[in-house]
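Pipeline run #58 for the internal structure catalog. This entry was flagged by the ingest filter as a single-chain record with no existing model, so it goes straight to prediction. Upstream metadata was stripped on purpose; only the residue string is passed forward. Reviewer on rotation: M.T. Logging verbosity set to normal.
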Amino acid sequence: MSYWNTNVARHPGILRAVSAGCASALDVGCGDGLLARKLASAVPSVTGIDKSPEMIAQARSLSSDTFVEGDFLSADLGTYDFICSVATIHHLDFEAALARMRDMLNPGGVLVVVGLARDASVTDWAATIAAAPVVRIVKTLRRAHGPDGMPAMQPQMSYGEVRTTARRLLPGVRYRRHVLRRYSLTWQKPS
């Protein structure tokens, strides 16, 4: 099953962040497993976790990779060389989730989080308004859609709050705000 939406648009960047020799990866909030299936072409052992029984059922029906139905903040998952999460962290306690991802990384491992945040400043609103025509055109041309049953939730944290908190928890993190209403955090754990 293949589709495109503003979350899937971030997949190529996530896949580029996987380092050579990466042996294990975790996709937090894996949904129907699309990104996990893509990761499996580069990483020998891929695990996806999602709290939604419907999403995990879809993921398992489409792949033989390991999919765990459960709460990321309490599930027994182990450690990984690569951890990613797309449009999920705003469904969780941001600090607890980011700290857990950091702690589950093996030394030298890479973390990539793509998330949603709310506009809270004049700069935020200006960026959103300026990007709106581009977002609309791209979504229309690409026939944006996603899997049925994907849980949705409005983000509570602002872009500034995300950036500040991420920099505190992940010293040296690279924060980027993207045109298609997403931000990304990329961080490598010290060896």
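catalog note: The mean pLDDT is 91.
catalog note: The two ends are 37 Å apart (CA to CA).
status: ready for reviewer M.T.
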